Amino acid sequence: MKTIDKTIERPSFKLSLIALGIASFISSAHAEEDINLETVRVVGQAVQIDEALKEQRNSNSIESVVHADGIGQLPDDNAAEALERLPGVSVENDQGEGRFVTVRGLAPELNAVNINGTNVPSPESGTRAVALDVLPSELVQSLSVVKTLTPDMDANSLGGTINVESLSAFDHDGLFYTLSTEGSYDDNIDKTSPKGSGAVSNIFSIGDGVDNFGVAAALSWQKRKFGSDNVETGGKWEFTDQARLEELEQRDYEIERERLGLGVNFDYKADIYTNYYLRTLFSRFTDTETRNAAGMEFDSPQLPSESGTGATGYRELKDRKETQEIQSYVLGGEKIIGLWTIDGQIGYSRASEDTPGHIAGAKFEGGFDNVGFTDTSKPRLFAGSDYYDPSSFSLDKIEWEEQKTTDTEKNLKFDLARDFTIHNYASQVKFGGKLSRREKDNDTNAWEFKNFGSNDTGLGAFAGSNVDYSLNNYGPGISSSAIKNLLSKLNFDSNINTEETRINDYVMNEDINAAYVMNTLDLDNWTLIAGMRYEQTDFEAKGTGIRDDVFQEISSKNNYHHWLPGLHARYYIDDKTQVRAAWTNSVVRPTFEALAPGFSIESGDKASFGDPTLDPMTAKNFDLGIEHYMGRAGAISAYGFYKDISDFVYETDIAGSGAFQNFKEAKTFKNGDTAKVYGLELAYSQKLSWLPSPWDGLLVGANFTLSHSEADIEGQNTKRSIDLPGQSKRVGNFMLGWENEKVSMRLSANYKSSYLKEVAAVSDKHHDAYVDDQVFLDFSSSYFISKNAQISLEAKNLTDEHYYVYTGNKAYNNQYEEYGPSIKIGFTLTNF
Hints:
Structural class: mainly beta
CATH superfamily: TonB-dependent receptor, beta-barrel domain
Mean pLDDT: 88
Radius of gyration: 28 Å
Strand content: over 45%
Low-confidence stretches: 1-42
Number of strands: 43
Helix content: under 10%
Number of helices: 6
């Protein structure tokens, strides 16, 4: 390969991008001195950053990376929270934990997740997004977010492709192991939780080879108990001359989440030209949730502090145990024959969500006078003593459900590359293809009980202890065991909810056939990559709908193909500075909720349905930026991006138009015309190693992304402009760290601005739901007792940040939730 004759050789056929917001920087004026004086670290924040920047710099794409340190530790508990530190990345939280990842302001379902090179399906029934909190950080060696796709990559992301790489034995020299134990405390429910994890790897000599076979395994287990307090209106506001509230609900959550993760990987290097690998990963996420709710439906919409009569008050219990599993197996290899490189892999992934029979709703009701609320953003219900007396409520209904969703992806990939020269310039042509077969199915069974015979149906017979609820008075909860005891006396066969059971069942098949060709050329100070990808999709959905109490079997097909050209360019200003530009094209299929074939239609009243014939979203993506690397583990970058999106999918109400002219409500999904997203991504990092001791251990990092989106929607004979749902206009991270050979500390802040969560009817923007801005402040530290043993302390959500969704205007509640801070103490023993 042709290289520039300079002190540092630039990598061939690699387009790097940068910039992680937490890095060490050594100014050029002191670089020589620092290299001579600095002790090489084997663990800690600087090692994580250094390894991440190496991967980013050598990448063919614009990419940001999080890497494990020398003892196999990522900087956060799960994969989602680790990614949150990267430029342009934010995380959607669930019950105070990071779950779904957004990239450059684009919603999680517009991003793809790969584990060890194979696509990961989603365990949840309605979405393509993968909740990355199912992946314990101990199983992960590195995480990356690829923001510009080369033609040899799946084209199924608009924001970014999240790549998860698990541990390989060749990540370490010889025997390596680490064992960790941890205890955490949740302030909201005053509970402690255990965690244990470990990883081991070693390299062996088999046959005639030397150190040619590696085995690595990792195991993680955690059982976490926590909770949250919530008050929500669901957007039930009437906006006329003044805002009046129709109903509100107070919720208390008690949650136990158990995570089990296991990975076993094998690597075999037959010779210097041939290697094979097997990557396996299993993750189980069990979520046990008990939710007590106390609500009030006012007889007519009320003003704050106004007292009303004839209201319906209720108490409700939901109690379920849900298990999500992800399995991933990848078998592959690579062989070099002269100027040819051949590689291929077979991948199999399966995700499932199993919710066995559970209380989906046990509701008690009663009538109340002199009730109302105060405060529109965090409503507080006021009522007489009768509302807190169990004898005021009687059992209205019990809903019992069970559900199983599976999502299976099988794929076969083959790549062939050849190196050659053009007028003495190094070049490489690469081509290949991929076959992907995906099947998603959902099976729901539902029962509804309303006739309880001679059984006592007053709340007093089912009341539990008083609920620990911090936002207001609450009173007694509902006993789950008492409800189940009643159900054991009832006839399930005569109480099946046929509609809910049938219309939520479906099977969807999605077959994708892809092929590509690309060429990479080193031309003096330029590296150029040009190519074309072709993807052809066959989609089929089968399900059941109900129209005016008559069931209908549905079978729908949709076929389409896309030609997706791409061009990447990198110009080396010098050995440390480079400019990157990329023009790429991508295609994202609609969510399974949008494509669902089931429907429910009541003529002249309400309808809800998906649309299996929706077009996929396509985007033309443009990126331009500059990055500068500064000594060991240091970088600074600035990138601009622009996305021109066609056929974006949104949820809307089409009542009052077409076949639904006389309907009150008709909720479905539609393709919009075009949407645009553009922004600026900045990242800076510095290790202050040139300062005198002890300040030479300081690490400073920051990144900030500004973005803007424009989209037009239509329905109900009107049009309006919106932001793309899930898109935060401002996302930022700041980190201040310090470390030496014994101690490592980090104070980090993560910020994201408000964003559109749900779109109401096209003619009713006042009921759009927005998530308010959030700032999370976390602290972590560790101390090495010896070379092989360390203790750690971590405090999360130090400022007790809440989650707030508002309706149209920040003054009007849709949902408010508090979690409280948590503290973790851990011990790690390592051999390396």
